Amino acid sequence: GELWIDDLYFHRGLCHFRLKQYSKAMENFDLVVRHARNEGMAEKSLFWMFQAQVRSGRKEEALHTQSLLEASYPRSPFLAQAWYLKAAVYEEMGEAEKAASLYRQMADQFPQSPFRFAALWNAGWLGYQGNDFPAALQAWERLSLTDPPSRWMEKVLYWKGRTLEKMNRPQEAEENYRKLLRDFPASYYSQM
């Protein structure tokens, strides 16, 4: 319950997490969550406990912990990453539609988050894999309009082209491929 004890157990939890000893990490984070006098430390511990549960394959527990984090700390700086990880958990559980929806919501809810790029990419990829080409195209179009780093733009141009081909829109696909070749001539995607 003392501040230095909270800090000690939190950092012990982080050490166990980094050593991939997730059960021990969860024990330490849980102690901080239940007994901390510092709300910030409890918030961080809850987030890291969620990550440890995800890494250890305890998906249902992880989803519960993420909901608890969101309910307890609605303005948490960890929420964008927690939403992203929650969507990834659903994706691992084979619930692609729910995952894609969460990825899109995450990008809407947290427009300044660096995770929004990967979230929109994943939403598009899940749509493409599920043959929901309009959803894939919409997600990748949003990603291309967010002024992403070039590593995203190359992928977006190529896969938008592939998606447009699947939708029987060859002229638009060709435009994407030309832009890809013009803007990123040495890219892996340009070679494809």
Distance between the termini: 58 Å
Overall pLDDT level: 93
Fraction of helical residues: over 70%
Q: In percent terms, what proportion of residues is strand? A: under 5%
> Biggest β-sheet, characterized?
none
Explain this structure.
The protein has 192 residues and is mainly α. Helices cover 79% and strands 0% of the residues. It has eleven helices and no strands. The chain has helices at 3-18, 22-35, 39-55, 59-72, 79-92, 96-109, 115-129, 133-145, 150-166, 170-183, 188-191. α1 runs parallel beside α3 and α4 (59-72) packs antiparallel against α5. It starts with a helix and ends with a helix.
Q: Concise description?
A:
With 192 residues, the protein is mainly alpha-helical.
Features:
single chain, 192 residues, 11 helices, elongated
Note the topology:
Blueprint: H1 3-18, H2 22-35, H3 39-55, H4 59-72, H5 79-92, H6 96-109, H7 115-129, H8 133-145, H9 150-166, H10 170-183, H11 188-191
Helix pairs in contact: 1-2, 1-3, 2-3, 3-4, 4-5, 5-6, 6-7, 7-8, 8-9, 9-10
